[in-house]
Amino acid sequence: MPDILERHDEAGIATLTLADPDTLNSLSDAMLAALAAALDDIAASDARAVILRAKGRAFCAGHNLREMQAMRQAPDGGAASFADLFDRCTGVMTRIRDLPQPVIAEVHALATAAGCQLVATCDMAIAADDARFGVNGVNIGLFCSTPMVALSRNVPRKRAMEMLTTGGFLSAAEAVEAGLVNRAVPADRLAAETRELAETVAAKLAAAVRIGKGAFYAQLERPLDEAYALTRDAMVANLAEPDTDEGMAAFLEKRPPRWTQ
C-alpha cells in the first residue's frame, strides 16, 4: 500500500501531502495516525513553517464513512469507536494549533466536513480560485458538530450556522470574504503563492514566531485583562531572546540582523 502521507523538507519548510486520492484524502484511521506522527516529528524539528497540501480531486473529504459504518457492528452500535475517532481527530487538530511552527493549508480543491475543519484549524490558508468549502454532514443526517468548533472560530456566527444547517458550500471567493482562507489565487499559481508565504514566515526569527503563535491562541479566549497580561509575558520572554536584541540593534544601526537561529 503506498504511503498516504508524504513529507518533504526544504529550506526550513516541511511540506505534508495528503496522498490517498482513492478516498478523497479522507481522515481515515491510517491518515489520522500518520498526521499525528508527522506533526509530532515536525514539532521537534528545526522546520520554521509547514505547508499542508493534497493530491487528487479533493483536498480532504472529511471522515472515512466506510470505516464509520463498519464501527456500527460493535455491540454498542459503535458509540465507543465513534467517540475514540473524534478524540483522535481532535488530537490532530490541537497538534496543529499547538505546533511551534505556523501551518499553511494549500487548498487546491474540495474541502468538506472534517476536511473543512482541517483548513479552518490551520494558521493560514491559500486556496485555488475554484476550490470549495463546506460542512455538509447535515445532508446525510450527521450535523458537523466537531468541525463546527474550528469553523465557528474562523467565520462569522450566522455564516457558520447557515453552512452547518443547509449543507451549502462556499466558493473560494466567499471563503476569503468569510475569513476561512487568506486569499484565493489562480490554480496555476497556488503552489507558488503558498510557498512564497511559507518562505516569508520561515525567514523570521523562529523563537519570536514560536512565542507569538502560542500567545495568539492562548489570548483569544481570555478576558481582555487576562489577554493583555498573557501577551505582556510573551513579549517579555521574546525580548529575553538574544536574537531579538540583535534584531533591534540591527534595525537601529540600519543593517541586516545576524541571527543565530
Low-confidence stretches: none
Q: What order do the SSEs take from the amino end to the carboxyl end, as H and E?
A: EEHEEHHEEHEEHHEHEHHHH
Number of strands: 10
Q: Give the fraction of residues assigned to helices.
A: 40-55%
CATH class of the largest domain, named: Alpha Beta
Query: What's the gyration radius in Å?
Result: 19 Å
Q: Beta-sheet strand percentage?
A: 15-25%
Distance between the termini: 39 Å
CATH-derived topology of the largest domain:
2-enoyl-CoA Hydratase, Chain A, domain 1
CATH superfamily of the largest domain: 2-enoyl-CoA Hydratase, Chain A, domain 1
Output the number of helix runs: 11
Mean pLDDT: 95
Protein name: Enoyl-CoA hydratase domain-containing protein 3, mitochondrial
Keywords: Fatty acid metabolism, Lipid metabolism, Lyase, Transit peptide
GO molecular function: enoyl-CoA hydratase activity
InterPro entries: ClpP/crotonase-like_dom_sf, Enoyl-CoA_hydra/iso, Enoyl-CoA_hydra_C, Mitochondrial_ECH-domain
Name the descriptors.
single chain, 261 residues, alpha/beta, 2-enoyl-CoA Hydratase, Chain A, domain 1, Lyase 2-enoyl-coa Hydratase, Chain  A, domain 2, 6-stranded mixed sheet, 4-stranded mixed sheet, 11 helices, 10 strands, 49% helix, fatty acid metabolism, Enoyl-CoA_hydra_C, lyase, ClpP/crotonase-like_dom_sf
